[in-house]
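Protein 1 of 2
SEQ + STRUCT:
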Amino acid sequence: MSVPAKRYLMYVEQNYSFAILRPLQDAILKRGGEVAWFVAGKEANSGLLTESETRLHTVEQVQAFNACAVFIPGNVVPNFFPGVKVAVFHGFFAGKHGMDHFNIRGFFDLYCPQGPNTSEPFQQLAEKHGFFRVVQTGWPKLDPLFSSQNAIQERNTERPKILFASTFSNKMTAAPHVFETIKRLSLQGKWDWLVTLHPKMDTEIVAKFKAIQGPQLRFVENEQVIAALQEADVMLCDTSSIISEFLILQKPVITYKTQFSGEHLIDLDDVNKIESSIEYALSKPAELMAKIKAYTEMIHPNTDGRSSERVLDAVDWFIEIGHKGLKKKPLNLIRKYKIRKKLNYWKR
């Protein structure tokens, strides 16, 4: 008798979730499992699903699908969905939002953090609360970042490539402040430039950068960001979470008036220092690279591109053994009511 395929549900409330969950989907399909997607709320675009991906439209369909696990890159999930509730995180803990990263909202059975700086605090919280487990797995989103390393090493490196990436917040974005500098430097022809901006960036700023594209400057759309991270030698940024993803590749990052802190970054408050800082970063000074290495060992030590596999192994472990001895989750009545209202679902 054949064993039924394991079923898994991807729970999406934001567009960034697709890039986080698709490597998990790939790993599940390679294991012979089945995957379905549930897109909730108004901020996620279900049109980003491909024709080959299965979308469930109703709670009844979710319950009939009966997944063994639900993967969530957010903070909440319907408690009435079948399966182990697995937190796979929507970004790195970098201090930008304080300790909110470690808020325990009472929805998850299993947390799969990226590295020691998140797994250790969550493990302490697991021992305190007693109703969830923690397994450090690495971040599925980064699996594609490491899957093409050989291709990266073989690329043409005649001219160094500088990637400018920026967040959209008016208070934190560097985009309007560094525009003229990037325009000038791209015209010099000393380096090639790649530019990628947050999907929520002001459209006028996006248009300005697209207008200066040329032989030495190319605008990179959101779906091409992984390739841009692999291609670039140095990043210029502000307070975007993409900084950590670039550092994990052991490449220097220059920040302009960042809200992050640390000796693993080259932080500036003067656009006139950008050019000399790029020269410094391209030299990859030993002291800076050692600090980058130490930092990335704390946030994401795995560089094998198999984080999704570890997440699936953690789910198997939880179902077989890990759930034993856990306390009941808190009632969480207010949050549960809000979810039911959002989905307009009032059945048991």
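Protein 2 of 2
SEQ + STRUCT:
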Amino acid sequence: MPLEITSYKNIWKVSYPIIAGSIAQNIINVVDTAFLGRLGPIELGAAGNAIIFYFAFIVLGMGFGIGGEIIVGRRNGEKNFTEIGRVIDHCFYVLIPLSVVLFVVMNLFAYDIMALTIVNPEILSKGAEYIDYRMYGIFFAFANICFRTFFIGITKTSILIWSTSVMAIVNILFDYLLIFGNHGFPELGVKGAAIASILAEMSALIYFLIYVFSKVDRKKYGLLYFKSIRNSIIKRLIKVSSPIMIQYFIAVSSWLIFFLIIEKMGTRELAISHIIRSIYMVLMVPLFGFASATNALVSNIIGLGRKEEVIAFTRKVVFLTIIMTAFILPINLVIPESMISLFTTDFSLVEESIPVLYIISISMFVFSIAEIVFSAVSGTGNTVISLTIEIATLVIYLLSAYYIAIMLKAPLHIVWCTEFIYFGIMGALSILYLRFGNWRNKVI
């Protein structure tokens, strides 16, 4: 690991491929929403809720992968390269069986769980239709998480640009062919969007496999040899990852609860919120790229024995993130109608969405600080603390959203102001922990 690991240049070198890969990933979300928005507000709301429901399961794998990144980053900093491959092999040992379990749960209980929370029967029906197909993608998604864990953990992130670009191209192509039935393909609506996403995940996995077996020094890293299971590695992975898995599950579940609160306000409010969600995800692209890099690089820095540099390094990443956020936000503020019109042709829906777009655009500055500092906390390896911060923040966030939306019956853009509550509390607690917490003595 180079000595200039904490330099702006190195932060950008590790971050930009993740950002580029995230751009491709978010193109998928944008295109899905744009296509489904042209089917109608029912289809848009149904698929939007179903996607969040699906990701409540996927984030369990993502959380495990983040834990793996922390351990791989620590071993990479220590230059214990052969142990890295063993960690990744054990990620496969855990995540593939977990994907089977979660598939069975979705297959048996998805409709019943959604029926408990979704009021509108049309939204429930279309959402269940989406999940019936989308659940098959979980096997490919979890395998892809293992490969992402490897490349981010060793800070060789450029491969993510290409793997996610493949996903985006395949998804866009089959969205176009299957949602509306173009060029002789069947017109499948929300089912077509689900199938397109599965094919996209499958294509990314094929790309990873080809790249690893043709370009990566598997012998150096001991990667994909799948030797005997070592209980000590499993235990370490579970110890570091399980709080993040719970944290991610709770976070996405709370996002789903937030949208269920919005659904009680009305179908139009739900459609607007899913449009805003898609734009929000685009705005988050640089932020999540820098957050992933922060998580991996903090672990690498600690592995190098340079714990005293963590706080200064985190400040640098926050600065870069704010600059990037400030660069992209004027698009929303200057031409909001054009941004929203990508997702719907309903002029009144566009007009009603603009105040919410302004709110989430401004909240991104608070988000830029909170998410980076929170990722640094996770990167220290003390994931129980990050889980505690997440739970405390989400409880206050959801209670605030419910009170403002249901009790006060406030307009939609005021309900979305709860984002400031969420990011403000998360950022404050994370900063306090980095300043005063006992993370320097954490061993993983």
